[in-house]
Amino acid sequence: MRLHFLTVIIASASLTSIAAANEFQQELETLARTRITELAKTSEVVAAVIEQNRRTGSYTQADIQRLDAEWAEQARSINQPMIDEVMDNALSRLLVNKQETSGGLFTEIIVMDAKGLNVGQSELTSDFWQGDESKWRETMLKGPGSLDISDISQDESTQSIQSQVSLPVIDPATGEAIGALTVGVNIEQL
Q1: Can you say whether residue 79 is alpha, beta or left, with left for phi > 0 and alpha for psi between -120 and 50 degrees?
Q2: Can you give the CATH number for the domain in which 52 is found?
Q3: For 2, 111, 153, 180, which has the most beta carbons within 10 A of its beta carbon?
Q4: What does the UniProt keyword field contain (predicted)?
């Protein structure tokens, strides 16, 4: 019933007005505080973020913009060494598995470092730097306990009606935010 109702609304209204009445907020918060938090706490996620932070900690904004432009250029090319390095790493393989075993609930999973750069992802993203987006700003910068749930939207890359649920990745040794994790949630599967 809810799914049919949502489909009718999407056909006749803008997605902005749908988001204002996000009837899935409670379910998304529960999912964030359970399965998504558990994923963010795994040793594989934490270790990968810590390792990348060691490499990218001294990057300037100019470095980040150069890498983001290189990613976008490679996304339009056959030659994709930078993209391949991220998509083929152990963390991305883990995230692909988590997405595949979610039964269609998760449409994408992205892990970002302290600069907002992709560490691992289950699906190819259009950009390498997420640091200018709320999924990173509202979690990594706000620290432990923060949560960002996006408006409901039609995601062109995943072809699903989804909301992005984001939270910080926490270093268990310090209790500090060291990165962020975003999961695209197919609300039709809630």
Answers
A1: beta
A2: 3.30.450.20
A3: 180
A4: Signal
Task: Please determine, for residue 15, whether its predicted confidence score (pLDDT) is greater than 50.
Answer: no
What is the predicted pLDDT for the residue at 157?
A: 67
Segments forming the whole domain that contains residue 41: 24-189
Predicted model pTM: 0.88
